[in-house]
Amino acid sequence: MTSLTRHFRSLPWVDVLIGAAVITLGTLEAMTVATSYGSAQNPQFWWVAQAVVTGVLVLYRRRFPVAVFILMLLAQYAWHRQGNEGCPVWQLASLLIVFHTIGAKLPPKPGASWVIAGILIFDSGAVDHRPLPLNEVIFLTVVFGSAYLTGLALRGYQTRAQRMAERAARLELERERRAAEAVAAERTRIARELHDVVAHSVSMMVMQAGVLRRGLGGDNEILSGIEQAGREAVEELRIMLGALRMPQDEALPQPGLDMVGNLIATLGSSGVRVHLAVEGEPVRLPPGLDLSAYRIVQEALTNAVKYAGDADVRITIGYRDDVVELRIADNGTPGPSAAGLSTGNGLIGMRERAELFGGSIEAGPLPEGGFQVNARLPLPQGVPMSEHA
After folding, report:
1. Which of 86, 106, 87, 84 is nearest to 96 (CA)?
2. 301 with 317: CB under 8 angstroms?
3. Residue 38 phi/psi, 5° resolution?
4. pTM of this structure
5. How many Cα atoms are found within 13 Å in the side-chain-facing hemisphere of 321?
6. What b/e readout covers 332-360, taking b as 16+ CB neighbours within 10 angstroms?
7. Strands 312-319, 273-279: parallel, antiparallel or unpaired by DSSP?
């Protein structure tokens, strides 16, 4: 009973109401006006069973339009074989609904073929077993043909509405794409303008501070600090030109290599055992370089967690005299997508981050099994090696 109720609830309520209306109208005609259609007396209880069958057929006309169409023709044939001359209102209404459904649900060519076949069957008298007068032939042709045409018009309207909705969706996607491109272009323009204007001014300051320092003997610590800060500012401005091309969320405050330990802690029960090793004396990196180094480690580690399975991952951060070296290696079996890596732009995104600072990325499987990512990021000139990160 529950499955039957669930089945009826899945049917369109409009169809349920139409089927119930056909059954109700058939029952009323069976009880009141059966003699008007050639029956010997009122009521005709067996009409009720035929009305129920017809109502159920109408109920399923959307799901099985051709099958219901054929069964309705056979029901009409059986109706007239019982000696009934006329067609009650509920039967005529059901036939019109079924002809309409053929037009609404089937493509034009097969739908028209079925409708023409049905009209010819009625007009030829095959259903009534009698030759039909011309006026009745015209009547059946017009009403059944009109019912089909209304369904065909509804199908055309629905098709146009669907195409318009799809076109609107495509236009919305195109609008969003163009808006994103416009934002990216504007950010690039702003970055270039800021870089050209500010970098020129800072470079002049650095040059003047250098001239003044050398004029005072070359040992002035304050002027040396101004020169060093100026060179770092010019380097950061160059990095900003690339940073403004990145997604907007990367413009927010971001972590650096000092947060790799926290990144490892967030893996939890991923099944991968991660070991971190730091070689050399950690130094304070420029913010842009520090962020990109962190993102490279994050990307490679995410790839290892996703594809290496139950494996050991070793992260090595090496601070050398003029370069920061990053090595992320695992002893698992890389998946089919290991070369593409997982999040963001994968290996392409990591390579772009490294090249932005004049560095390089090497990635590939290890001979003994597993996968590794090696990154070398040059340190800007003048980074104090004794200052901790």
Report:
1. 87
2. no
3. 100, 0
4. 0.47
5. 0
6. bebeeebeebbebebbebbbbbbebbebe
7. parallel
266 half-sphere exposure, CB direction, 13 A CA radius: 8
Span 231-252, average pLDDT: 61
SS in 3 state form for the chain?
A: CHHHHHHHHHCCHHHHHHHHHHHHHHHHHHHHCHHHHCCCCCCCHHHHHHHHHHHHHHHCCCCCHHHHHHHHHHHHHHHHHCCCCCCCHHHHHHHHHHHHHHHHHCCHHHHHHHHHHHHHHHHCCCCCCCCCCHHHHHHHHHHHHHHHHHHHHHHHHHHHHHHHHHHHHHHHHHHHHHHHHHHHHHHHHHHHHHHHHHHHHHHHHHHHHHHHHHHCCCCCHHHHHHHHHHHHHHHHHHHHHHHCCCCHHHHCCCCCHHHHHHHHHCCCCCCCEEEEEEECCCCCCCHHHHHHHHHHHHHHHHHHHHHCCCCEEEEEEEECCCEEEEEEEECCCCCCCHHHCCCCCHHHHHHHHHHHCCCEEEEEECCCCCEEEEEEEECCCCCCCCCCC
Q: Show Cβ contacts of residue 243 under 8 Å, excluding neighbours closer than 6 positions.
A: 191, 250, 251, 288
Report strand pairing: 323-330 vs 371-378: antiparallel
pLDDT for the residue 224: 75
**Burial tier of 9 (Cβ tally within 10 Å: 0-12, 13-18, 19+):** exposed
Task: Please give the structure tokens belonging to residue 62.
Answer: 């959307």
Which amino acid makes up residue 143? V
Alpha carbons 143 and 194: distance in angstroms, whole number? 76
Residue 361 region by backbone torsions, left for phi larger than 0, else alpha for psi between -120 and 50, else beta? beta
122 exposure class (CB count in 10 Å sphere: 0-12, 13-18, 19+): buried
Domain spans, the chain: 2-132, 191-250, 254-378
Residues 292-331 have pLDDT tens digits of 898 899 888 888 877 766 778 899 999 988 899 999 998 8
Q: Architecture of 254-378 per CATH?
A: 2-Layer Sandwich (3.30)
